[in-house]
Amino acid sequence: NAYVFFERKSQGKSSAARYFCRKNCKKSGCRSLLIGASGNGETYFQRVAADLGVEYTSHSWARCLVAAMKKSPKEEFSPFLFLDEFNEGTKQDLQDLNKFMRASQNLGFYLIVVTSETEIADNVMKLNAWGKMRPLKYIHNGPIENLRGQPGYDENKSADWKQIDWTHEQLKNVVIIHEGEFDDYSFITPGLTPT
Question: When you count CB atoms within 10 A of the terminal residue's CB, does the N or C end of the chain come out lower?
Fold first, then answer.
């Protein structure tokens, strides 16, 4: 139930997560929440607590958030909690994330950690010896089922992360969807991204 979504900066990770929450989850009737950390604080979760207007020290905010994401027996689909821009990776961040990861397992919601830092993505994957945190499908070059308990498993191994390379046609379609048709698309040059 816990996944890492890695991609380089400015490739549309947050946009993809917002789209998933606003369109896919809303259409299917499942709950979702996308959280970023823009408040003041030394760690990711301190900034999240500041954004929510609560004190980090009590951890009651985290318990409330986790309880709010718990899957109800009446719900057909499990809720999604996205932790966007998880680009820190302090020891405290990883300890707090470990609690969220375990809660997602116990309470039946999906936890998606979104990061643009390969080192952070690898460190998050190593939580619980790669046992509960997995790479989000299709963004990892290796088989998802490998890792723990499989031949060749190595807990010190780094993931082989894919990178998105946007084609001219894909970018043209993004422009058309968001800005409408143009007569000339020569402004779309190699290396551009949707953000």
Answer: C
In degrees and rounded to multiples of 5, residue 14 shows phi and psi of -65, -40
Closest by CA to 51, choosing from 66, 63, 64, 35, is 35
d(CA 121, CA 89): 9
DSSP per residue, 58-95: T-HHHHHHHHHHPPPTT-SS--EEEETT-----HHHHH
Contact present, 152 and 146 (Cβ < 8 Å): yes
| pLDDT computed for residue 178 by the predictor | 72
pLDDT tens sequence across 129-186 = 556 677 776 566 554 444 445 545 455 555 555 556 677 787 787 778 777 888 888 8
Residue 141: count other Cβ atoms within 10 Å of its Cβ.
Answer: 11
Q: Tell me the C-alpha distance between 58 and 52, whole Å.
A: 13
């963004």: which residue's tokens?
Answer: 139
The CA radius of gyration of the chain, in Å to the nearest whole number, is 18
- Dihedral over alpha carbons 89, 90, 93, 94 (to 10 degrees): 70
76, 29 contact by CB (below 8 A)? yes
CB 146 within 8 A of CB 182: no
Alpha-carbon distance of 42 to 60, in angstroms, equals 19
3-state SS assignment for residue 177: helix
Closest alpha carbon to 81 in 110, 59, 108:
110
